[in-house]
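Continued from yesterday's entry.
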Amino acid sequence: MKGIIYIMTTAVSGLIKIGQTGTANFQERMRFLEANGYYNVSGLKRFFAIELDDYTDKESLLIEIFNKHRVGDSELFALDYDLVRQLLLSFDGKVIYPKDVNKEKEFDEVSKAREQGARFSFYKKGIKDGEEIVFRDDKEITARVVGEREVEYGEQIWKLSPLTYKIYEHKGKLTKSAAFNGSLYWKYKGKKLKDLPDIN
């Protein structure tokens, strides 16, 4: 039996909702959650959805795999949404949201972005906690380094890729592929983070 497994981002950085619904109910379910929130969490936004055979079994598998990241008995998980999206893209199914996505290309792009994001380190570039980085497309947007791969922005702690996604989402400038290698979009002392040499 076909149905949809979806991922939604929330107002809380690093917290996502994983759920499932019947194909016919998808749009209504998204509108309800985006309007009303879930489990006292607001700001839900659809991020990714795929139609699959045996969708309830596959959702159970996801919950089993990511159970240690689960918030209580809810459908909320403290997880990187690209990790879950990558796993869902590996299933045999049809991407429903975003529309017109090439599954193989998207999987490769997500894999590449995750790999590059995992390798990036402020400390390897000689950038210390407390130092400031600047968004490539808007010099008014800055973030403060607070860890090897984390920054503080808007009184929240972020990794670069999710923060870059959030800024583009806020500006209404998201491309079809929402996978961002954050080090391409931020600068330190006028140079892209990606172009800075490692110091060790």
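--- second protein ---
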Amino acid sequence: MMQQFADARRFFSENDWRTILARMNARDTHPLIQFIKYGICGVGALVVHQAVWTACSTWLYPAIDSSLPKEVRALNSMYNNSIAVVFSTFFAYVTNVKWVFEQGRHHWVKELFYFMLVSLLSFAAGLAAGPFLIHKYGIHSIVAQGLLVVVSVAVNFVCRKFFVFKG
């Protein structure tokens, strides 16, 4: 692992920006660069998810107002996350296909199904944890959102790299 970091550091220090960007945009890039690209797409999906969740939590199903009972915040947060995941998963699929992973392990319909399935499974794990922590320990909704993100990122990358796409 340390050797991979050393190789990546050497690549970035020995090349100009044009070469670095060309390598970043290549599909057959170093796994560390692929993870960085995945992270960039993930940040975009996170921004989409949080924007939709915040909008829904403000206007559709209130979940941010701490004056609401924790049971209401937990339930509303779950509803809002369920809406937001549709938008963020679509964004993630498009950006992962266009920039990060190579298609072809499965027919595109099956690939999209597996992509959505992996997203929903990791989302369900994080979604179950959030309301539990809000209800059981009274933690703030924003902290529960952070935990949802951590769980989802780890599960999604591993499953997408080794199960959904060619790699």
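The mean pLDDT is 84. Residues 31-164 form one domain. Will compare against the first tomorrow.
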